[in-house]
Amino acid sequence: MRVNLASLVAILFGLLFGALALLLSPAKAFLAVIGLAGMVTILRFPLWGLLLFAGLATFMPYSTVNLGIRSTVSEAILALTWGAILWHSLLARLPATPSLASRPTDQMLLWLMLFSVFPFIVGQVTIQADTSGVANWLRWLLNLSGVFLAAKLLVQRKHREALVIALLLGTLAMLLLSIAVFVRTRSGAGIAPILAMFNYANFDMLKFGLEAMSSRMGSPWTHPNAIGGIMALLLPLAFCFGMTEQGWKRALGLGVACLGAAALLLASSRGAMVSLALVLIWMATRRVPYTGRLLMIGAALTVALVLAYPPLQDRLATIFSSSNASTEVRFDEYRMFPQAVAAYPLGIGFKADPPVPGSHLLGISNLWLNYIYKIGLVGMLLFVAVTVRWWREARPDKGPIRLTKDNALWLGSTAGILAALVSGLFDHYFSFAVVMVALFWLMVGINVLEARRLFPARVPQVKRVAYGKPLLDGAHS
């Protein structure tokens, strides 16, 4: 009797589920079954894996799972999505992707990834640390791969819109949770029990950090400046998406924009506040509708929130003061940075994050200088080259910018990427912080696809030679 492949797979999974039910507790068996069903679904539909990543990475970014090695759930889904893509590529089920020659941003990012082999080897040899440099390097490459995932899975605009909705839904859930817990407990450490339930790693150290910053809102992003960076990246997209949609999509976009603005104040992230303000001013100078009005409304809401919440008054009173503790630390970081470059001229690689354990040095709260610290000056210059290539593809044309439904994803993602880069003057999160980096490059992937659709004249034309035909008129074999 012949058994077809579908029946064989069904039998194998039935046996596997039965074994799980016998070996595990009911709760763990149920979660395992859900996880396996999710894995099979992603292998069948890779786009669903990317959508799931977008939702979970914005809601509980550092929730972990132990599958032999401990990884964040977000990165595990990202890796599984790549596995599904490879499987579908073998079966020729994926649409053809344009060549790298017609995707200059992707091409330069690939050069950055290839160059990172050199500082990786240097760090493996020169840095003494307990962590695995190989695992950290591979995780960083996986997080950078969002641009290439977008090129393969988000070819159609409806798929890009679905991904944006997933990003905003995850962000909305994260904001509702964070703000509700902070309002109820009046402490940044109030989120700690929920993070324990999400199986966050290094929980004791995480709880200590949240308690040390208890006057600032806690969140699944663990650090107040980290949620500030994510808000800088996503709020312009939420605003542009909400202003051009109708119904529940409009409510989703504007809800995330309003709650995100409140979260920025409660988390008191200076870099994100300044970054978003500068980008909004730039948008206002380009006459993007509603941005000037939004600046005034934002200022009014800020005053109202400060008057209603006295601890925020104390925080804002010292937030931009030179005597602020974090400001003093940043001055010390810049003062000692030349010593770090002299000690590690080729970068420290991926075994450790700055500062190197056992050294007298400090880290650096700057996106570009952190690239130098980790992978050297050449690595930082390659990152600059990637951003230049991106800007050449995505920049707006001269003159006023009109916000429409057709260009909302492009304009929102462009403004978000600019805000994230400006925030890099104050923080380093978008350089090597896992999950945050993945969201940043996924946003770049969405942005360049929209830019190539809106500005087709900028797409490099790849010359093709038709074999078997004369190259010049009159040429004969």
UniProtKB/TrEMBL annotation:
Residues 257-384 form the O-antigen ligase-related domain. The keyword Glycoprotein does not apply. GO terms for cellular component: membrane. Keywords: Membrane, Transmembrane, Transmembrane helix. It comes from the Bacteria. Pfam families: Wzy_C. It is a multi-pass membrane protein. Signal peptide: none annotated. The chain crosses the membrane at residues 6-24, 108-125, 137-155, 162-183, 189-206, 226-244, 250-282, 294-312, 371-388, 408-426, 432-449. Its main location: membrane. It is found in: Membrane. This is O-antigen ligase-related domain-containing protein.
